[in-house]
């Protein structure tokens, strides 16, 4: 049956109907006073979600665009960057920095684990000359379903003096992340995750310390240039033509988020993930991330049962039960499947997914 | 009255209802086989519109993103770039190249004029050491309403040996531009113009000669990296999460464009622009670009009549007649207003705009 698929991948995520309909209106001119009001309202809403007093730059791009923005506005060729890697998205930071000509040092742990704050501290303590300018890390690692202890890590980075650059693409609006209180210097996210709208917008917040380092940047990106964004944001507009309809969608989605309240949103994500984890264990399947203290509230990775393979599970779930889950990435391809509980997902959806997964496994066991 | 505005700005442009409704569907997973089919179909449609056999890279960004892609994949710091400037968008190429550290030479003509091919030839002939690697130019200059003789200019650039990089943001899908036949090396465009969909996607085509130069590029952009786009396009996908709903919208819009046919689309734009120009002259107003041989078929710039100012014309047109036209930019602000006939615009719309403009002027004259 067509048009019945329910996305439980880590993005794009399900989009509320009211958001889809808001998006389907004729575009408005992006230099109009009406649109400036939308920009202002969306900006205030994003600050609230990011828990920050700093400006939120809104890019028309995917989350990777915001990653490039961070690196290309902070890092010169030859600069030393430390990348904390717990999965593919942590590795992406290192790739972007390397492509920029940075001297990249990596702290890598086995996939399925989080960064140990003590290990980070050891590395930064050894950097007595303070050569490391930037430390990149991932809040919620989408490829494994692990959440890093960002609060602790950001504190250690602050004590060293480097700038912390955090990928919050699948955490912001889903998992608590107090940017200002925790002292995160640069935080980015994307629209098709906790924000419940389709892909196409990405967000970046930089605090005063990050702006200081930015001043030393020789060849920043033009499209993602912080100064241009700042100058235009002060006039409630964007330097380039934005994805107008996605702004309208975001305006509506933020209104829904305000109604629910941040604490309730975080609690819902936690409850849904915990319910999913319990149900998966109850049906005898194994979780890729067993340690509940680092398990993501946004993405749950599951190992297939003995004798049944991941492609068959994904195929049956999709074809017979209209539920789309993600495969593992790279080395984890066909070894795990990943279920998102990110954004517009309720307890009913989790129960539905569990029932469908159970039926899928039973069918494939025959 | 709300929801009645008709956009006659140079983008975003009016969007067909069938496209808006296609866009309002729940997003599909971007790594699904269904979406790969969309990517393949859209890719073939774009090649047809660009009149090229080369791959079309589809970015989630505004047109400026595609501009940065071109420069950042071709130009190293210190490289010599020649920028042909007939307006703000031509100047943008020079800014991007300068921000990249290029040594930028400019051929600038008064706004309202086009580049004279002989002048370009003189400059390139003088470059006997072939130091100029890249020549940037604008096909249709949105800020003035002038169309450059791209066919002639591209030929001269080819004879010199430099790479021609052409902004076709407001020309492709509206004004004939035979990329391969004319020997254009890099051609870019954006979604919210001739393609009749909302802003958020940008396109870039590079031919073999451009790919050769790209190989010498030391620090290409990561987000706009040509190699990653090529590798993924070969598998009918994109390197990063694309604006899925805009792809669906584009798929629908390209279907409509195929039904109309390229020649008919170009003829419609020409007829509409000529009808608009005639009507404007008939009511005693002056055109900013009097020379019909370089007047744009996509954007018409108009001078306000003696004693009436541009802001009043724009305000009355919008508030009393629900028609949105653009102001001039920078030095031309409040000196001209610009009317777009770009994309989903018919003869009826032009007649409506002329009647409304006449009524506006009459009202303001009282």
Task: Indicate the radius of gyration of chain A in whole angstroms.
Answer: 21 Å
Listing every helix as H and every strand as E from the N terminus to the C terminus, the arrangement of chain A reads: EHHEHEHEHEEEHEHEEHHHHEEHEEEH
The count of strands of chain A amounts to: 15
Largest chain interface and its two residue counts? A-B, 59 and 59 residues
Q: For the largest sheet of chain A, list the strands in their spatial order.
A: 2-10-9-8-5-3-4
Distance between the termini of chain A: 24 Å
Main beta sheet strand tally, sense and closure of chain A: 7 strands, mixed
Q: Roughly how much helix do the residues of chain A carry, as a percent range?
A: 40-55%
Strand fraction of chain A: 15-25%
What is the tally of helical segments of chain A? Answer: 13
**SS content category of chain A:** alpha/beta
Please characterize this protein's 3D structure:
- Two copies of one chain form a homodimer.
- Chain A has 366 residues and is α/β, with parallel strands linked by helices.
- Chain A contains 13 helices and 15 strands.
- In chain A, the strands form four sheets. Chain A has a seven-stranded mixed beta sheet with strand order 2-10-9-8-5-3-4, sandwiched between helices. Chain A has a four-stranded antiparallel beta sheet with strand order 11-12-15-14, with helices on one face. In chain A, strands 1-13 form a two-stranded parallel ribbon.
- In chain A, strand 3, helix 4 and strand 4 form a beta-alpha-beta unit.
- The first copy, chain A, is globular and about 65 Å long.
- Chains A and B meet through helix 1, helix 3, helix 4 and helix 10 of A and helix 1, helix 3, helix 4 and helix 10 of B.
């Amino acid at each position: 049956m067509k048009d019945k698929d329910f996305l439980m991948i880590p993005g794009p995520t399900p989009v509320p109907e009211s958001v889809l309909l808001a998006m389907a209106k004729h575009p408005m001119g992006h230099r109009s006073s009406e649109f400036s009001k939308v920009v202002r309202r969306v900006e205030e809403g994003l600050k609230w979600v990011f828990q920050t007093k700093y400006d939120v730059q809104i890019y028309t791009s995917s989350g990777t665009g915001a990653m490039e923005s961070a690196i290309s506005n902070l890092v010169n060729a030859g600069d030393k960057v430390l990348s904390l890697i717990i999965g593919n998205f942590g590795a992406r930071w290192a790739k972007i920095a390397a492509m920029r000509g940075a001297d990249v040092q990596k702290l890598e742990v086995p996939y399925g684990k989080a960064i140990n704050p003590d290990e980070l501290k050891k590395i930064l303590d050894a950097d007595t000359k303070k050569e490391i300018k930037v430390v990149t890390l991932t809040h919620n690692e989408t490829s494994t379903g692990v959440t890093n202890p960002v609060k602790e890590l950001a504190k250690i980075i602050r004590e060293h003096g480097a700038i912390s650059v955090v990928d919050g693409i699948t955490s912001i609006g889903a998992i608590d992340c107090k940017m200002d209180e925790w002292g995160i210097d640069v935080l980015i996210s994307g629209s098709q995750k906790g924000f419940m709208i389709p892909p196409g917008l990405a967000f970046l917040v930089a605090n005063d310390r990050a702006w200081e380092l930015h001043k030393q940047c020789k060849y920043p990106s033009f499209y993602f240039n912080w100064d241009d964004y700042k100058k235009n944001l002060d006039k409630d507009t964007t330097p380039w033509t934005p994805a107008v309809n996605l702004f309208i969608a975001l305006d509506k989605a933020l209104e829904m988020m305000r109604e629910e309240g941040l604490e309730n949103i975080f609690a819902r994500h936690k409850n849904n993930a915990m319910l999913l984890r319990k149900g998966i264990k109850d049906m005898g399947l194994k979780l890729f991330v067993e340690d509940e203290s680092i398990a993501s509230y946004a993405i749950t990775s599951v190992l297939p049962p003995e004798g049944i393979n991941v492609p068959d599970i994904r195929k049956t779930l999709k074809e017979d039960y209209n539920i789309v889950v993600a495969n593992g990435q790279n080395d984890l391809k066909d070894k795990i499947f990943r279920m998102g509980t990110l954004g517009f997902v309720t307890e009913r959806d989790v129960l539905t997914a569990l029932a469908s997964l159970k039926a899928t496994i039973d069918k494939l066991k025959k």
